[in-house]
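Progress narrative, Year 2. Work on PTS glucitol/sorbitol transporter subunit IIC from Alkalibacter rhizosphaerae advanced from sequence curation to structure prediction during this period.
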Amino acid sequence: MDFLAGLAEGFIGLFNAGGATFMGLVTGIIPTLVVLITFVNSIIMIVGEEKVERFAKKMTGNFFTRYTVFPFLAVFFLTNPMAYTFGKFLEEKYKPAFYDAAVSFVHPITGLFPHANAGELFVWLGISQGITQLGLGISELAVRYLIVGLIVILIRGIVTERITIMMMSRREAE
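Result:
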């Protein structure tokens, strides 16, 4: 009988844990995202969607700025995870590569701009702690972390763009 009671408690405990996780999302990240989305859409409405799209088209007209400057601006101004909404200004074939570039940049930017990904600041703090323990400054490390991050997102953006275009071409051929 104790075995069955323990099994029943474990069964309902699983769903209670799932419910607690769900409530954590409902009271945590979801309201923040709704407010951020509303804020960004308000800014776009105030500035004018045509002007924002024109600026985005200029910014994403070549692969270099599309996978360096544009993700940087998205992560810097909108922070993680709202930065990914900048993808709506891109053509479909560039969206996966932009997402890959932006999501890869949310850690390297935290060395100089911790607001950009405050929820995962522990990654930067863990990396920089070793340098601090050696008695060295972390400013140079933060700059190098940012530069390497920009190089990596450029490479990832180009590679993902090529893969996406190749897959889209195959789908059209079928």
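The mean pLDDT is 88. The first helix runs from residue 2 to 27.
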